[in-house]
Amino acid sequence: MAAANLGAGGGSHKAPGATGEFFAPGSLVASATPEAQCGLPWIETPTSYDGILLLGFGGPEGQDDVIPFLRNVTRGRGIPDERLEEVAHHYRHFDGISPINEHNRELKTALAAELTARGLDLPLFWGNRNWAPYVNEAMTEAANAGKHRLLALATSAYSSFSSCRQYREDLADGLEDTGLGQTLQIDKVRQFFDHPGFVAPFVEGVRDGLASVEAKFPGINLETEVEVLFSTHSIPNSDADRSGPPERGFGAGGAYVAQHRAVAEVIMGKLGRTTTPWQLVFQSRSGPPQVPWLEPDVNDAIRLLPATGRKAVLIVPLGFVSDHMEVMWDLDTEAMETSAEVGIFAVRTPTPGIHPAYVSGLVDLILERVTGLPGANRPHETTLGPWYDVCRTGCCENARLGFKPALSGLKP
User: Fold this and answer.
1) Are 274 and 337 in the same domain?
2) For binding Fe-coproporphyrin III, which residues are annotated in this chain's numbering (predicted)?
């Protein structure tokens, strides 16, 4: 199968889209372990894995990588390089280096240490969607090491096409590209938007952020003069509406919006700040302006705050597990500039990164599958969870492209 030589290291390449599917006889879930082939929402049978497949988005690591990386991100859309260069300046501002790969290296190291501390002999293999090391390379590395039963862990907490199903499609792409469809069995950790380990760093960040606002403005009224903006990546309305299982009936915004709102409510509730004003905002939209995307944009929301009497804004990157380029540029650069322009004091809270609670929580999620923890005992902070080990039928369709082969879920 032809592959473009786009990544560092000569032979690195992004797998082309899969055209086939890989099923064990009688199974409902493509290329799953025997325990997961039943397709139940939660797999409550202990499963013996021999490796963890860490899935990332990927990012450029030098100026020469930027345009090839953006070609990967936008593959199939026919976007010319001249338009890609309009986005490239975000990366070029930081010497063409996205922080995401280095963050994943740090996360891989932290996870390995936590797994060892828990007595789990599970080697980690790391693969990205859009830049080296690619998912198909990680699969080949695992197979060459004699590993055949992998548990995939995506660095994305919420349900949508781009944050869940596309990773599942990456797995199918990688199996077809490598020819390992009959060799590797791959399951995937559930979406962890409301797992305590993911929520705890945000609770801590909002608490400390509000404290810094009070230190800056002694006596400030947190119920009338401060606004908390929970920010996440905007996606097309049509994709948001299709996020999550159709039978859950989430309505406009689908599971993607519902999950973010639910987690934000939990954070404010844990801090006893239910009367402090907050809202869910969006960032980093792309695509043609005539296509509706989730709103309001974080900058538009900030511009409206002075008229409401707000003196300070707390910006919480709720949709991000680490300081992606979207956090560094859209929040740390543009949103901070907008805040300064309108005379609002702004604080940006941290992402989970390698926070001990987050790393420990990810290993807890791995252990759920290793031990077959019953669904009723799975920890979750909102009434929406715990989310599913096996994605349900019709979950997170891409409105433009429809359903493509994907692992770790029921068809389509």
Assistant:
1) yes
2) 98, 167
**How large is the average pLDDT for residues 217-223?**
98
Segment holding 100, helix H or strand E: helix 100-117
Tokens of 179: 């020819």
The parent domain of residue 234 ranges over 196-348
State the total domains in the chain: 2
Q: Same structural domain for residues 342 and 277?
A: yes
Closest CA relative to residue 278, chosen from 310, 252, 238: 310
Question: Are 248 and 159 within one domain?
Answer: no
- Domain co-membership, 185 together with 297: no
Given 297, 323, 348, the domain boundary residue is 348
**Which residues are bridge partners to 61 per DSSP?**
97
pLDDT score recorded for residue 20 = 83
Q: Would residue 272 count as lying in a domain?
A: yes
Q: What is the mean pLDDT of residues 9-14?
A: 53
pLDDT interval class at 138 (50, 70, 90): very high
Region 168-176 average pLDDT: 97
**Distance (Å) of CA 14 to CA 2, 123, 172:** 10, 23, 12
Count of CB atoms situated within 10 Å of the CB of 78 = 7
Residue 390 or residue 3, greater confidence: 390
**Domain final residue pick, 333, 348, 363:** 348
How high is the pLDDT of residue 25?
77
Helix axes 81-92, 66-73, angle to 10 degrees: 120
Which positions make up the binding site for Fe(2+)? 233, 326
Would you state the pLDDT for residue 23?
80
Whether 7 has a pLDDT exceeding 70, the answer reads: no
Same domain, 111 and 154: yes
Reference 67, options 57, 81, 77; nearest CA is 81
Binding-site residues for Fe-coproporphyrin III: 98, 167
Check whether 89 has a pLDDT greater than 60: yes
pLDDT of residue 282: 98
| Inside any domain, residue 79 | no
Position of tokens 């990386």?
69
pLDDT of residue 62: 96
**Rg of the chain over CA atoms, in angstroms?**
21
Binding-site entries: 98, 167, 233, 326
Whether the model clears a pTM of 0.90, i.e. scores above it, the answer is yes
Q: Report the distance separating Cα 332 and Cα 73, nearest Å.
A: 23
Q: Is the pLDDT of residue 1 over 50?
A: no
Among the listed residues 252, 317, 335, 306, the one whose alpha carbon sits nearest the alpha carbon of residue 280: 317
Structural contact between residues 408 and 152, judged by C-beta atoms closer than 8 angstroms: yes
Among candidates 410, 412, 369, which has minimal Cα distance to 392? 410
